[in-house]
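@channel sequence for tomorrow's demo:
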Amino acid sequence: MIKYFLICIAFLGVSNTPLASASTTKGPLHTITIAEFLKLPTDYQSIYVAGAIDGMTFITYGYKISHHDKFVGCSRKGTLSELTARVVQNANKRPDFEESVATLVGMTVGEDCK
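structure tokens (generated this afternoon):
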């Protein structure tokens, strides 16, 4: 029982580690850099893109943001593989992009809406 308690305490210590360095501007979290994203296998890139889209649509829906339906519609214009390929293409065009990869995912979907 003590063993499981110590494992839980260790997990809580790791799980409370900040995801991004402290800064004065509170922008989106940067859990992965463009360079790291581009090194991932295609399946992992797709999982990241899907998670970003799920998060964005959850927020736009949960906060009743007026462009929710349009964003969801734009996200559904193609397959996840197609969207991931476009995100990778945009990432390759912007290797020094300093915002999060999730921001790049949102920008890519936004390009689809034009």
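heads up for whoever presents: Confidence is low (pLDDT under 50) at residues 3-17.
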